[in-house]
Write a structure and sequence with these properties.
alpha+beta, 2 helices, five-stranded antiparallel beta sheet, two-stranded parallel ribbon, Thiol Ester Dehydrase, Chain A, globular
Length: about 170
Protein backbone atom coordinates (compact mmCIF):
# COMPACT_ATOMS: atom_id res chain seq x y z
CA UNK A 1 0.00 0.00 0.00
CA UNK A 2 1.41 3.40 -0.96
CA UNK A 3 1.35 6.35 1.37
CA UNK A 4 -1.12 8.08 -0.97
CA UNK A 5 -3.52 5.14 -0.49
CA UNK A 6 -3.48 5.56 3.29
CA UNK A 7 -6.29 7.77 4.56
CA UNK A 8 -4.89 11.08 5.84
CA UNK A 9 -5.67 11.86 9.47
CA UNK A 10 -5.97 15.24 11.16
CA UNK A 11 -3.45 16.27 13.83
CA UNK A 12 -6.24 16.21 16.42
CA UNK A 13 -6.49 12.42 16.11
CA UNK A 14 -2.94 12.07 17.45
CA UNK A 15 -3.16 14.66 20.23
CA UNK A 16 -2.40 13.09 23.59
CA UNK A 17 -2.02 14.31 27.13
CA UNK A 18 -0.56 12.66 30.16
CA UNK A 19 -0.12 13.83 33.72
CA UNK A 20 2.55 12.81 36.22
CA UNK A 21 2.86 13.71 39.89
CA UNK A 22 6.50 14.24 40.87
CA UNK A 23 7.31 11.88 43.73
CA UNK A 24 10.51 11.67 45.82
CA UNK A 25 11.74 8.75 43.67
CA UNK A 26 11.60 11.06 40.60
CA UNK A 27 13.83 13.72 42.18
CA UNK A 28 17.45 14.48 42.99
CA UNK A 29 18.65 15.16 46.60
CA UNK A 30 17.56 18.82 46.22
CA UNK A 31 13.95 17.79 45.54
CA UNK A 32 14.04 18.73 41.83
CA UNK A 33 12.76 16.45 39.08
CA UNK A 34 15.53 14.39 37.47
CA UNK A 35 16.14 15.41 33.85
CA UNK A 36 16.27 11.76 32.82
CA UNK A 37 12.84 11.11 34.34
CA UNK A 38 11.39 14.05 32.40
CA UNK A 39 13.03 12.78 29.20
CA UNK A 40 11.45 9.36 29.85
CA UNK A 41 8.01 10.97 30.24
CA UNK A 42 8.57 13.02 27.06
CA UNK A 43 9.39 9.81 25.17
CA UNK A 44 6.23 8.13 26.48
CA UNK A 45 4.03 11.12 25.61
CA UNK A 46 5.55 11.27 22.13
CA UNK A 47 5.04 7.54 21.62
CA UNK A 48 1.35 7.89 22.51
CA UNK A 49 0.84 10.42 19.72
CA UNK A 50 2.85 8.32 17.24
CA UNK A 51 0.87 5.17 18.09
CA UNK A 52 -2.46 6.99 17.86
CA UNK A 53 -1.61 8.42 14.45
CA UNK A 54 0.09 5.40 12.85
CA UNK A 55 -2.15 2.81 14.51
CA UNK A 56 0.94 0.62 14.66
CA UNK A 57 3.98 0.07 16.81
CA UNK A 58 6.32 3.04 16.76
CA UNK A 59 9.88 3.25 18.00
CA UNK A 60 11.93 6.31 18.89
CA UNK A 61 14.50 7.12 16.19
CA UNK A 62 15.76 10.47 17.49
CA UNK A 63 15.18 13.29 19.94
CA UNK A 64 16.12 16.89 19.23
CA UNK A 65 17.72 18.74 22.13
CA UNK A 66 15.77 19.62 25.25
CA UNK A 67 16.10 22.80 27.31
CA UNK A 68 14.86 22.71 30.89
CA UNK A 69 13.31 26.13 31.42
CA UNK A 70 12.06 26.06 35.02
CA UNK A 71 12.66 23.65 37.89
CA UNK A 72 10.03 21.08 38.80
CA UNK A 73 9.77 20.03 42.44
CA UNK A 74 8.49 17.05 44.38
CA UNK A 75 4.72 17.36 44.66
CA UNK A 76 4.34 19.26 41.36
CA UNK A 77 1.94 18.08 38.69
CA UNK A 78 3.58 17.73 35.27
CA UNK A 79 1.38 17.86 32.14
CA UNK A 80 2.77 16.58 28.82
CA UNK A 81 0.94 17.35 25.57
CA UNK A 82 1.93 15.70 22.31
CA UNK A 83 0.83 15.48 18.68
CA UNK A 84 2.20 14.47 15.30
CA UNK A 85 3.66 17.48 13.49
CA UNK A 86 4.43 15.83 10.16
CA UNK A 87 4.73 12.43 8.49
CA UNK A 88 7.60 11.38 6.20
CA UNK A 89 6.63 8.01 4.64
CA UNK A 90 7.55 5.68 7.57
CA UNK A 91 8.59 8.25 10.16
CA UNK A 92 6.74 10.92 12.11
CA UNK A 93 7.93 14.03 13.88
CA UNK A 94 6.09 14.41 17.17
CA UNK A 95 6.11 17.58 19.26
CA UNK A 96 5.87 17.36 23.04
CA UNK A 97 5.28 20.38 25.25
CA UNK A 98 5.68 20.05 29.02
CA UNK A 99 4.08 22.20 31.72
CA UNK A 100 4.25 22.25 35.49
CA UNK A 101 0.85 22.97 36.99
CA UNK A 102 0.22 24.47 40.39
CA UNK A 103 -3.24 23.04 40.97
CA UNK A 104 -3.73 25.06 44.16
CA UNK A 105 -2.95 28.48 42.59
CA UNK A 106 -4.43 27.33 39.22
CA UNK A 107 -1.33 28.40 37.27
CA UNK A 108 1.02 26.63 34.90
CA UNK A 109 4.51 27.24 33.51
CA UNK A 110 6.19 25.93 30.40
CA UNK A 111 8.95 23.51 31.48
CA UNK A 112 10.32 22.08 28.24
CA UNK A 113 9.58 21.24 24.62
CA UNK A 114 11.02 18.52 22.42
CA UNK A 115 10.70 17.15 18.92
CA UNK A 116 11.05 13.40 18.53
CA UNK A 117 11.13 11.22 15.45
CA UNK A 118 9.31 7.89 15.60
CA UNK A 119 9.31 5.13 12.99
CA UNK A 120 6.29 2.88 12.48
CA UNK A 121 7.17 -0.82 12.46
CA UNK A 122 5.46 -4.19 12.40
CA UNK A 123 6.04 -7.00 14.93
CA UNK A 124 9.13 -8.11 13.00
CA UNK A 125 10.69 -4.63 13.04
CA UNK A 126 9.99 -3.86 9.38
CA UNK A 127 9.17 -0.24 8.60
CA UNK A 128 5.55 0.55 7.73
CA UNK A 129 4.15 3.42 5.72
CA UNK A 130 2.25 5.98 7.77
CA UNK A 131 -0.84 7.90 6.73
CA UNK A 132 -0.20 11.59 6.03
CA UNK A 133 -1.15 14.08 8.74
CA UNK A 134 -3.43 17.02 7.97
CA UNK A 135 -2.79 20.25 9.88
CA UNK A 136 -6.04 22.14 10.43
CA UNK A 137 -5.09 25.24 12.39
CA UNK A 138 -2.55 27.99 11.73
CA UNK A 139 -0.41 26.70 14.63
CA UNK A 140 -0.52 23.14 13.24
CA UNK A 141 0.45 24.40 9.77
CA UNK A 142 3.42 26.30 11.27
CA UNK A 143 4.54 23.18 13.14
CA UNK A 144 4.13 21.13 9.94
CA UNK A 145 6.34 23.54 7.99
CA UNK A 146 8.89 23.77 10.82
CA UNK A 147 9.09 19.95 10.93
CA UNK A 148 10.14 19.92 7.29
CA UNK A 149 12.93 22.40 7.98
CA UNK A 150 14.12 20.44 11.03
CA UNK A 151 14.20 17.24 8.96
CA UNK A 152 16.45 18.86 6.38
CA UNK A 153 18.79 20.05 9.15
CA UNK A 154 18.88 16.55 10.70
CA UNK A 155 19.62 14.95 7.32
CA UNK A 156 22.41 17.43 6.54
CA UNK A 157 23.98 16.83 9.97
CA UNK A 158 23.77 13.06 9.51
CA UNK A 159 25.46 13.34 6.11
CA UNK A 160 28.18 15.55 7.61
CA UNK A 161 28.85 12.95 10.30
CA UNK A 162 28.97 10.12 7.77
CA UNK A 163 31.53 12.02 5.70
CA UNK A 164 33.62 12.77 8.80
CA UNK A 165 33.75 9.05 9.66
CA UNK A 166 35.14 8.06 6.24
Amino acid sequence: MTQEELAARPVRDSQSEMAELVLPNDANPLGALLGGRLMHWIDLAGAMAAHRHSRNYAVTASVDHIDFLVPVRVGDLVILRSSVNRVFTTSMEVGVKVFVEDYIADTSQHVASAHLTFVAIDRDGRRLKVAPVVPETEEQRRRYDDAGRRREIRRAELERRRKAMR
